[in-house]
Design brief:
The complex is a heterodimer. By secondary structure, chain A is α+β, with helices and mostly antiparallel strands. Chain A has one domain: Cytochrome-c3 Hydrogenase, chain B, CATH 1.10.645. Chain A has 16 helices and eight strands. In chain A, the strands form three sheets. A three-stranded antiparallel beta sheet of chain A has the order 1-2-3. In chain A, strands 6-7-8 form a three-stranded antiparallel beta sheet. Chain A has a two-stranded antiparallel ribbon with strand order 4-5. The longest helix of chain B is centred in the last third of the chain and has 16 residues. Classes of the chains: A alpha+beta, B alpha/beta.
Amino acid sequence: MKFQIPIGPQHPALKEPISLRMTVEGEVIRDADIRLGYNHRGLEKLAEQKTWIQNIYLTERICGICSHSHTTCYVQGVEKLMELEPPKRGLYIRTLVAELERIHSHLLWLGVAGHEAGFDSFFMYTWRDREIVMDILEIITGNRVHYGINTIGGVRRDLDEQQVKRILDSLDILRQRSEYYKHLGTNEPSFVARLAGVGYLSREDAIALCAVGPTLRASGVAMDVRKDDPYAVYDEVPFEVCTADTCDVLGRTVVRIKELFQCYNIIEFLLKNLPAGPVAVRAPRRAKPNEVVSRYEAPRGENIHYIKSNGTDKPERLKVRAPTLGNYAATIQMLKNGFIADVPLIFAAIDPCICCAERAVSLVDARTGQEKIISLNSLKSLSLKLSAGNKRKREAEWPL
Amino acid sequence: MLTKLTHWSRLKSPWILHLNTGACNACDIEVVAALTPRFDVERFGILLKATPRHADVIICTGPATRQMKDRLIRIYEQTPDPKFVIAVGACAMSGCVYRGAYNVIGGIDQVIPVDVYVPGCPVRPDAVIDGVVKLLNKLKG
């Protein structure tokens, strides 16, 4: 006996609107279907109406967690189109903010994973420490979430000695805290028992289904755009690509905790080797007709922007492939043959960022949807409309 | 007596439903951050609830998208009376950068009535708390 269970768009287990349809046999999920479009805003079309500079702030608002990822990806592409070479100091600061963002995103994810696993004090701990990173970001950029630090040809704000010292001090606290999480994440028996073996994704499947980011790396594939196709200053920075081979949610947790330590090392390196000089160069208003693909390793995986210019001050086309979209196919594979109770955990493990992924609406999905959900008011008006033409019977007969 | 008691309890424990109607996640994270130790709204009796049937206050983030419009109305209908809506962030107020996009209707107030607007892109957690407190003051008066 098979049942279909709809989850979402508003559901306790989900933080963002998305609709999942599970076909279940008892407790076991046999098939899953993801429905999108609740968060689709039409951003790519909107980008065509805005200038190169305005679009930085638009791409920033693709996603609030990886806002720097999207702007950097976009700005790198535009710099290639305009044939600009940003100064070294600008690139260093850009990379610094990127790594700080990775820390805040991973801490956030650890908290969410703890919450989904029923370990709420872990959630509170990581989010408390996340505030330290948010403070650093606020000091550097002036904002907690949408940093607005990127500009075409560099960054908008410079760092001073005091800020550098403050960041290095905070790093010590974060390192200490992360040691504790590492210990907790790998040794706490109930936490490990909850995560181990859940959401299995084999190495072959991960490659075949084009998984990206920590999801892919937790299946034992050492792929990282920062290493494979270095952008900004990653070719100068020493760091390792973190992998795990357990292929489950535990592996994804371990990969993220390991990456935290890499982030601290990278930030330390960047701050100690910060070159002097200007932070930005002047950018032209127009770009020659051309097209470019820009890659970036966001906290969730590989982010791709395709930009096409036509000689004006606006892009002709901007296409965004966010990491979460790359992970959807793998998620369905992970959900299959799992338990219903594991859905939030598996889904959270890819660190879904639905607002990132909602670039395109697949109309096919909407058309095959058999059932229709209507609100109470529209149901009322529908029934009124249907019964409007009916004759009123003065003396209705009881049908039985 | 009983009305006095309900009024008191309503002021002391506003339960919140957080609803993303198409936001970029920034406001959502800041709303959740308001629950965590640095800001800790739970000391005011504010509790984040997962279902609209338990909630008194709906915190909406993000512009209303066309796909989400009907769901938004449905969730508003599911919330028991008396209910209040807080529009959090510039998008929920007017649409922010998404204004003019084909799939965005505009602010939340285009779809459901809104009691309190909290500006910011994204709002700070402090601002969210301030918004809730202002709503409670409105209830008192």
